[in-house]
Structure formats: structure tokens, C-alpha cells
Write a structure and sequence with these properties.
The structure is a single chain. The chain is of the alpha/beta class. 48% of the residues lie in helices and 13% in strands. Strand 7 and strand 8 form a beta hairpin.
Length: 583
């Protein structure tokens, strides 16, 4: 039995299909002046062919109703990026590089800068660049994607790592599920799996050592397991779980556009997390943007984005939100999130070093530019500003004072700014969590970043597979701390939300609502499942669950309580589900 991270729900059975990665043949010979025009022409033709392929992919996804054309629209923007095209053509025409070498070098350079980001959402953009790079190189070689061999029925597609375009081309019905050696729940390949309803298990150690083409396999993304060569009883049992998981997913999808209100009338706001200037279509059916990461503007550039560039990006998001609140998290770079064009000192322990708010307060010119842009953008919508890595009141007071001084500066210059812009703190350091009562007395709002809070609380890097088990998100210890913060903010009647992965975990969401949280922010794919569990339970039930989890003897007992409650609540074929339909 192999174990991994279930990144897209469901259970699947099939024969193993091994995806062989495309390995381009790149000629790095120097081209003479007479050869360069042909190489430039070959690049332009490959770019046009790659663009046509992306258009076809976007159309196919729209016809399937997968709703993830935005990822590939972003790929199209990468492909058409003028700065990269200029560098590629310069390498060909001025330096004598072949088209393949120029494409490979330029795309790898851009991807390398982004890949060093700590934030997995930002880091994922490096994979997008790799995906487009391989698409271009494949077009240069005149090669198409390999066809799947489905003669033995539905398959479990296995790879070292999946790129978004590889997932998207998997034929509907031919692939039952996918697994990979590497990958995370926030990667774009996982998002495409979720949109297509493909059960997926990523980060499976020893996967390529044990999986062989043609062997039968059972993939259970609910339990995070991959069973190779099951016996007949295991195969039959998996079939029953597969059908049950499919029914549960279909039931949950009926809640995708429904308000999250408990059976006894307690409303819970459902918001989305994003790290891009283009909001997903789910913005129309949620309560706003609970976390707008701004790092993407800095990671994708070769220069610090100036005030006008940032203003245009933030304004665009606010306009798309159409009056719904957008919580903008100020810049979170530093330490291991290095920008080549803005060198920072290397640190022995970057996770505990000069990053996020600490860096912005240390480099006021950086902070000033972003805050001015944000204040100007606030005139175009409902902007909330939040500072990351607040360790306590001292950090908060310094950040607030600096932020308000930027507003005064703009007003004196005659610039339009929003009348009411709440200022808040992101609680992700245990010291801030323990001091929640005093913070609640001063901030306008706060949001709990459970990813960092969990790893700092348990001193374990959750991105390190070897120690991830030491930072359990369902731990009674963490839940008790979450409850402490909820009580502190409720006493002050201040808004408190969750914007980490815990908010999008339907089992954990039930506990969080029971603890007092009334605003959860998450990726769009998790929204139907979270809405469902809230709509199918009463507030008193959720509060009782929260109490049981907080006093659980250990992690196992806490997770058993959560799983038992979740399964009882989501049982299908009840009157509430029949009435809950998509608009």
C-alpha cells in the first residue's frame, strides 16, 4: 500500500498507465548569420502552432464544462509575453542560438526565479512556464502528445509529476484517476484534476519504483492510498467505494452556488483565495476574496513593479469583484523568496528570518510603493488591507501607522482613496495567536493563516514530506488555539476568518464553524464540499463537534470524531439535497 496526498476527491480503479515525460532534443550549435533568419522563422511558426494548441485545449475544457480554461488562458499570455519573445529573438538573431536553445534558456531563466518562492501558489507559476516551454519545444520538433492506450479499460495514469496540459488532455472516461511522485494540493495540475472530477493522489513516495504498466490499481484519494495489484475482494470493495464517492461528489456539487447557512439559520461567508489578477468565475457565487496574494506581481517581473503597475493590477481585481470585499495581503517575500533584481541577504533559517512585514518595515521604500498603489486602488471597490507575519501589537502598530501615513500623503496630493478601508493582521505566528485578545482590541479584522501557524506551532515544515506528519492540521492542540482566537475576536465583535488550507477542508470547516468562525476562504474546488457540510448541520451540532475535537485524547480520536460527523452529515438522497440545485 502506497500513501500520498489526496488532491482531488474520489476513488478510482484501473490498470496502470505510465506517462513518459517528453524529452526535447535541443541543438546548441552556434548558428551563422545566414542560418539565423530560418531559426527565427522556426520559432515564430512553433509559437503560432503552440497558440493554436492552447486555443483548442481551452475550447475542449469549456465543452467538457471543466471550468479551468483560465489556467490555459494564462499559458497563452505566457506564450505571447513580449519580453520573453524579445529575449528569444535576440538570442537567435544577435547571439546565434538555435530556436530550441533560445526557448529553453529564456523560459528556464524565468521559471528559475519564480521556483524559489516559498509560497506554493506563487511557485506553481514556474510549472506553468515549464509547461509552455515544453509545448513550444514539442512544436519545434513537430511532435504531438502521445495517445493513451486504453485497450484494457479505464486506467490510473502515473507520472513523476503532472503538468496542467498533460492532465487536460486525458480523454474523458479513459482515465479513472491520476497519481504522481511529486505535486501538491495547490498545484495547477491538482486544480485541473478537481475541475475535471478526476481522483488524484500526488506526492506518492516509491511510486515509480513499484508501479508497472498494465497492473491493476485502486486509487483512494479520500484515504490517500494507492493499492497495487489488489485481490478480487479488494477490487470489488473499491468498486463500491468508487460509486459511493461519485455520488457524494455529485451531491456536493449541488451546493456550489448556494449560500452557506446552517439548518438553524447561522450564515457563514465563503470566500476565495487567489494569487492572480484574473479572478475565477466562482467570484460570482461567493462572498468575496478572502486572500489576495500580491507576490505574483513581483515574482513574474524582472524589475520591482512600480506604483502604477501595482495600482492597475489591484484595481482590476476590485472591479472584477464588483463591490465584494477583497482582502489584499501586503507583500510576503524575503529570505527564501528571493528576487534576482532585488537582492536580499541570505539567512541560515529563512522561515524565521527577515520576510513579509518585517522586510517591508525594514525596506520602507518597498512598502511605500505598494501601500500607495493599494490606497489608490481602494477607490474602485471594497478593499481590505492585511499585513502578514504580525508577531504582536508592536508589529501591528508600526504597520498601521506607516499605512495611514501613506493615505494622508495621497490625500494631500489630491488622489482619490477609499473612505472605509479596514486594516487587519494575518495571524500565523503563535505569539500573535496567544495575544489574540489584545490584537482584537486594535485591529479592524484578522485572518488566520493556518499553514504557517501550524508549522510554527509544531516546529515542522509542512512542505517537507519527512516531517509533515509532525504538523497535523486536525490536531486538538491547534483546534484549541483556533478556539481561543475565535473567542477573543467574538468578545470584541471583530471579524475573524480562516484563509489557510484548513478553511477549505470540509471536515475541519465543520469544527471551525463550531468554534465560532463565520468566514472561511479557500480554493474554488473546495467550496461545494464546505458549503454542503455547513448547510446540512445545525450550529449546536457543530459546536458539540468542536468541543469533542478540542478535548480529544489525541490526533487519531480527533480525526475519528471529524470523519464520523462528516459522513453522517453528507449522506445523500435527503430532502435538502433534492431542493438544492444549481442556478
Amino acid at each position: 500500500m502506497l500513501h500520498g496526498i489526496g488532491v482531488s476527491r474520489g476513488v478510482a480503479r484501473g490498470v496502470v498507465y505510465l506517462e513518459r515525460p517528453f524529452e526535447p532534443t535541443i541543438c546548441r550549435a552556434q548558428c551563422g548569420p545566414d542560418q539565423r533568419p530560418a531559426q527565427a522563422e522556426a520559432y515564430c511558426a512553433a509559437r503560432a502552432a503552440a497558440a493554436a494548441g492552447l486555443e483548442a485545449l481551452i475550447d475542449a475544457l469549456q465543452k467538457r464544462g471543466a471550468g479551468q480554461g483560465d489556467i490555459f488562458a494564462a499559458h497563452r499570455e505566457i506564450l505571447m509575453d513580449e519580453a520573453m519573445e524579445e529575449e528569444i529573438l535576440e538570442a537567435i538573431c544577435q547571439q546565434g542560438a538555435t530556436a530550441g536553445a533560445a526557448v529553453d534558456d529564456v523560459y528556464r531563466a524565468y521559471a528559475g526565479r519564480i521556483a524559489r518562492a516559498k509560497d506554493p501558489v506563487i511557485r506553481e507559476r514556474a510549472k506553468d512556464l515549464d509547461d509552455v516551454r515544453l509545448r513550444l519545444l514539442r512544436a519545434l520538433e513537430g511532435k504531438s502528445d502521445p495517445a493513451l492506450d486504453t485497450r484494457n479499460g479505464p486506467c490510473i495514469a502515473v507520472a513523476e509529476e503532472w503538468l496542467p496540459s498533460q492532465i487536460a488532455r486525458l480523454a474523458a472516461g479513459a482515465v479513472a484517476g491520476v497519481a504522481s511522485l511529486r505535486g501538491t494540493a495547490t498545484c495547477h495540475a491538482a486544480i485541473v484534476c478537481q475541475a475535471m472530477g478526476l481522483p488524484a493522489l500526488f506526492g506518492v513516495p516509491e511510486l515509480l519504483d513499484q508501479a508497472r504498466a498494465g497492473m491493476r490499481a485502486v486509487l483512494d484519494a479520500e484515504e490517500g492510498t494507492l493499492l497495487l495489484e489488489p485481490d478480487e475482494a479488494q477490487w470489488a470493495g473499491a468498486g463500491e467505494r468508487e460509486q459511493r464517492a461519485r455520488q457524494q461528489a455529485e451531491t456536493a456539487r449541488r451546493y456550489a452556488r448556494q449560500p452557506a447557512v446552517t439548518t438553524d439559520g447561522c450564515p457563514v461567508e465563503i470566500c476565495l483565495n487567489t494569487g492572480a489578477a484574473q479572478l475565477p468565475p466562482e467570484i460570482a457565487f461567493c462572498d468575496g476574496v478572502g486572500l489576495f496574494r500580491t507576490e505574483f506581481l513581483f515574482m513574474e517581473q524582472k524589475h520591482l513593479p512600480d506604483e502604477e503597475e501595482q495600482y492597475q493590477a489591484y484595481s482590476a481585481v476590485l472591479r472584477q469583484a464588483a463591490g465584494k470585499p477583497v482582502i489584499l495581503r501586503t507583500l510576503d517575500i524575503g529570505a527564501d523568496k528571493q528576487l534576482e533584481y532585488y537582492p536580499l541577504p541570505k539567512e541560515d533559517n529563512p522561515a524565521l528570518g527577515m520576510r513579509a512585514l518585517r522586510l517591508c518595515l525594514d525596506r520602507p521604500e518597498l512598502f511605500r510603493t505598494q501601500l500607495r498603489a493599494a490606497w489608490r486602488a481602494s477607490a474602485h471597490g471594497s478593499l481590505w488591507m492585511m499585513f502578514p507575519m504580525v508577531a504582536g501589537l508592536e508589529d501591528w502598530r508600526r504597520a498601521k501607522a506607516f499605512c495611514l501615513s501613506m493615505r494622508e500623503e495621497l490625500v494631500e496630493q489630491g488622489c482619490a482613496v477609499g473612505d472605509k478601508v479596514p486594516l487587519g493582521a494575518m495571524i500565523e505566528i503563535p505569539s500573535a495567536a496567544l495575544d489574540a485578545d489584545r490584537l482584537a482590541g486594535e485591529v479592524d479584522f484578522a485572518s488566520v493563516g493556518t499553514n504557517d501557524l501550524c508549522q510554527y506551532l509544531f516546529a515542522a515544515d509542512r512542505t517537507n514530506a519527512r516531517v509533515a506528519q509532525y504538523a497535523p492540521g486536525h490536531s486538538p492542540v491547534l483546534m484549541r488555539l483556533m478556539g481561543h482566537m475565535a473567542q477573543a475576536f467574538a468578545a470584541r465583535a471583530k471579524p475573524l476568518s480562516v484563509c489557510g488550507e484548513l478553511g477549505g477542508d470540509a471536515r475541519a470547516a465543520a469544527v471551525l464553524v463550531g468554534l465560532g468562525y463565520r468566514k472561511l476562504s479557500m480554493s474554488p474546488a473546495n467550496m461545494p464540499f464546505v458549503r454542503q457540510v455547513i448547510c446540512r448541520a445545525g450550529l449546536e451540532e457543530l459546536q458539540q463537534l468542536a468541543r469533542r475535537v478540542c478535548v480529544a485524547a489525541d490526533l487519531q480520536q480527533a480525526e475519528e470524531e471529524m470523519q464520523r460527523f462528516y459522513q453522517a452529515v453528507i449522506q445523500p438522497a435527503e430532502k435538502g439535497d433534492a431542493e438544492c440545485t444549481q442556478e
